[in-house]
Specification:
Length: about 400
């Protein structure tokens, strides 16, 4: 029998959510991960804004049945708790949650319970914690603790972060995951802690918020790390896969792409955490998958193309290929007319390069922009294409 664990990233952004356009590809929600152990036990790692969408998914799947999960919180900074008030399963009495976190010296005993109550206190939230009717229990853990939940062995270790932060290791029968975010390298004790926690892990999720240059200069003391430190730890601890995590809110997708490619030069089995990314762990190894990212509707085509790229092991390749569909987000057109903003248009484009069939691309669009145009007699019109339901639309 194959024991398979599944990890899903619901939030990967550090510090604060980023709904901007240039961060959408990796995602703008703050930290939240879902781990399903091979026996079906459900874990949540951190409660950033990604928790909301996880809650919606679970509510839909449960369809009224009770949800039970173990929630491991690394620390109490906003970005790791701010999804709590928006997780619908907390407000349903048939559900049950077991929370784990440490006793903060600023909050005293029952720290995490106090955090929940404070988040839903007046005047910060419209309803109080009594509306959270799911059964909840809280367990305080500390660095060095080990415990077991349904066959998964958990270890906690202190990381180097302002006001404290725990890293967690979860050893399942499908493989091992180490979640070590919000950590600044430097102090020998913590550096050793982390290497011991991560030793031989199948997957290490690590804080890679800054560039190595930022970490050495203006961001020193902020409690975070870089892809280069991640690579060093992955090597020292003989980790199999490194996941760069907790992307800086000011890092665009292109910046994260750059960190990933630099890290892969040093440690090829590196990935950059992205919202919706899934990792399957089993005795056959680790496989990584991405969620569907092409948001625009697709149009089927047959265009010839020459494609060049790199294989898994870095070998370059080039081949002739056929483009079978394109996703189209929008267009800029020159028109004599001036269409109304936010009105619908039909755009039919002649697609060259396909002599074998009628090559008209007929697209429904909404007008989003208007300007005087590049030529005197014409108007510049920006459109975004909108869904035009089509029977048998292919989705991969
Ligand atoms: Zn954080
Ligand atoms: Zn933090």
């Amino acid at each position: 029998m194959t024991h398979q664990a599944k990890l899903v990233f619901w939030g990967v952004r550090g510090s604060t959510p980023t709904p901007e356009r240039d961060t959408w590809r990796y995602g703008g929600n703050t930290p939240c991960l879902e781990l399903t152990a091979p026996d079906g036990t459900q874990f949540i790692l951190d409660c950033g804004t990604g928790l909301r969408t996880l809650g919606n998914r679970w509510t839909e799947q449960a369809n009224g049945r009770g949800i039970r999960a173990h929630v491991l919180v690394t620390h109490y900074h906003w970005d790791h708790i701010q999804g709590i008030p928006f997780f619908h399963p907390f407000f349903e009495s048939q559900n049950q949650f077991h929370f784990y976190s440490f006793q903060s010296k600023y909050l005293g005993p029952d720290s995490l319970r106090k955090v929940l109550e404070a988040q839903l206190a007046s005047p910060y939230f419209p309803v109080d914690v009594s509306m959270m009717t799911a059964r909840r229990d809280f367990r305080e853990v500390t660095g060095g603790d080990k415990w077991e939940i349904g066959g998964t062995h958990i270890t906690a270790a202190w990381l180097n972060h302002p006001q404290g932060c725990l890293g967690y290791r979860l050893d399942t029968s499908g493989g091992s995951v180490v979640y070590a975010t919000d950590n600044e390298p430097g102090p020998a004790e913590f550096d050793l802690n982390l290497r011991q926690l991560a030793h031989g892990a199948d997957v290490l999720i690590y804080d890679a918020q800054y560039s190595p240059e930022q970490l050495a200069s203006e961001r020193k003391g902020w409690g975070h790390s870089s892809w280069l430190e991640g690579v060093k730890i992955a090597r020292d601890a003989k980790v199999r896969n490194l996941i760069l995590f907790h992307h800086d809110p000011d890092s665009s997708d292109r910046v994260v792409d750059g960190f990933l490619s630099a890290a892969r030069q040093e440690f090829p089995a590196t990935w950059a955490a992205a919202e919706g990314m899934g990792i399957h762990l089993s005795n056959r190894g680790v496989t990584v998958s991405m969620r569907e990212t092409r948001l625009g509707q697709r149009r089927r085509l047959r265009f010839n193309a020459v494609v060049s790229g790199h294989l898994d092991d870095g070998t370059p390749f080039q081949e002739k290929a056929m483009v079978r569909d394109l996703s189209l987000q929008g267009a800029y057109l020159c028109l004599k007319n001036r269409p109304r903003l936010q009105s619908e248009m039909r755009v039919v484009i002649e697609a060259a390069g396909d002599p074998s069939r009628s090559s008209m691309l007929s697209l429904r669009a909404t007008v989003v922009h208007f300007d005087a145009g590049r030529e005197k007699t014409q108007n510049g019109v920006g459109v975004v294409f909108i869904e035009d339901p089509e029977p048998g639309r292919q989705v991969d």
